[in-house]
Amino acid sequence: MPRNTYFRHTPAFILLFLAQKSAYGALLFKRLDKEMPFNLIDTPALYRALNDLEKEGAVEAYWDTSEPGPAKKWYKITKKGIEKLYELKQDIERRKRDLDFFLEAYEELQN
User: Fold this and answer.
1) Interacting residues of 80 by C-beta distance below 8 A, sequence separation 6+
2) Widest CA span of the chain, in angstroms?
3) What sign for the dihedral angle of Cα 54, 73, 62, 19?
4) What is the total count of domains within the chain?
């Protein structure tokens, strides 16, 4: 799958994970790697998406300096982010129907 097509849904995965639990960038990246067998999202794409989501007001960021070492920028989903997550879910469902159609039509060609 071309990377640019795949990256279109990077915000959906970020918002999904943040709806489950607040996280910082490296933690989100580890989760993407663990949960998604074909993860093509690299760290620059992740941080670009987080920055865009923050500008849109879909996530809020805050710095945690309570632990030793460098401060971590944590992200949490906002009400606007929950709304955006629902819109992204609807978009993915539409695309999934198209992909299911393709797979079924392809299988018919094989018979």
Assistant:
1) 56, 57, 58
2) 62
3) positive
4) 1
- Strand stretches in 43-88, DSSP E: 59-64, 72-77
Q: Which pTM value belongs to this model?
A: 0.86
Per the structure, the complete domain to which residue 76 belongs is given by 3-110
Strands (E), the chain: 23-24, 59-64, 72-77
**CATH code of the domain containing 98:** 1.10.10.10
- Residues 84, 59: contact at Cβ < 8 Å? no
pLDDT tens track for 43-54: 999 999 999 999
Q: Is the pLDDT reported for residue 68 higher than 80?
A: yes
**Closest CA relative to residue 45, chosen from 80, 10, 71:** 10
